Amino acid sequence: MTRASFESLRTKGFWPVQEHTNTWVPGRIIGGTTMIIGPLVWFAGLLVRHLAIQFSGLTSEQRAHFDAQNFAAPRELAAYAQDPALVTAGYALFAGGTILLFPAVLTFARIVAARCPRLGWWGGTLFATSLFARLYYSGVELTAFRLVDALGLDQATQVVLDSYAELSYGLWRIPVTAALGALVGIVLLVIGAFRAGVIGLGRAALLLSFGWVFMGVLKESDLVFGVLGGGVAVCLVFIPLGITVLRDRIPPLHATVEPLTGTARTRPTPPIW
């Protein structure tokens, strides 16, 4: 409809109604783009956090001392004291990846919901909620780093360890409760994606490892469960799907479904990968 036609109808008291089919949030462009960029930024954050520990300049005695402790927080704070810029970059990229993964996870849940709606709804909601807990942890970590700047490493480490449980659980234990959504949500999403034929057994296993990435304050990003299991895994799963979304090749969503007469209902065969 041209602008002149629109204005003509409006002056006569008519308001044209535009109907968009297959509309959803966050949409094809935002959803597909964040499914590509989000995992890359997330992976970069995990990698830089891992490298910051490896090249922090800690002596062999210091490394042995930190390895004997139950928490990774002292090592992370010591690495920050040695190289604040590199550690800050890793944590900042990880926080940025967390934000970008929010619309990416919603998009993935939308893909699952096309054939397995309940698994997509619940899995996507629970996992997306857990991302808010990660941002809370980022705020606590920034505070801990500022304590190192203000009080020195030893005193700041003692303050953080003395209050570690309270800091990790958060107000009324809301953050730690929200964090559980990642564990449950990713299982529901993986089951739904596999049943819908979106991913096979290989990518399903990778996506499970992504959902079980560490939760909490000042956690270590190790090579196997952090960089590979959490970073590379989500890139291998989300990026190809993001390209598919951008190319507008995902099944449409409808509020109501009309059954096909004379046609047997078949379930798609999940791919191996």
If you had to describe this structure to a student in words, what would you say it looks like?
There is one protein chain. This protein is an all-alpha fold and 273 residues long. The protein has 11 helices and no strands.
Question: What are the secondary-structure elements, in order, as H or E?
Answer: HHHHHHHHHHH
Distance between the termini: 45 Å
For the residues shown, what is the average pLDDT? 88
The whole-angstrom Rg is 23 Å
Indicate the low-confidence ranges by residue numbers.
none
**Helical/strand content category:** mainly alpha
The best one-word shape is: elongated
Query: What percent strand?
Result: under 5%
**Major sheet summary line:** none
Number of helices: 11
Specify the helix fraction band: over 70%
Q: How many DSSP-defined strands?
A: 0
State the gist of this model.
With 273 residues, the chain is mainly α. Helix content is 70%, strand content 0%.
What descriptive keywords fit this protein?
mainly alpha
Layout of helices and strands:
Blueprint: H1 3-11, H2 28-54, H3 60-67, H4 73-82, H5 84-113, H6 117-151, H7 153-162, H8 164-169, H9 174-195, H10 201-211, H11 223-246
Helix pairs in contact: 2-5, 2-11, 4-5, 4-7, 5-6, 6-7, 6-9, 9-10, 10-11
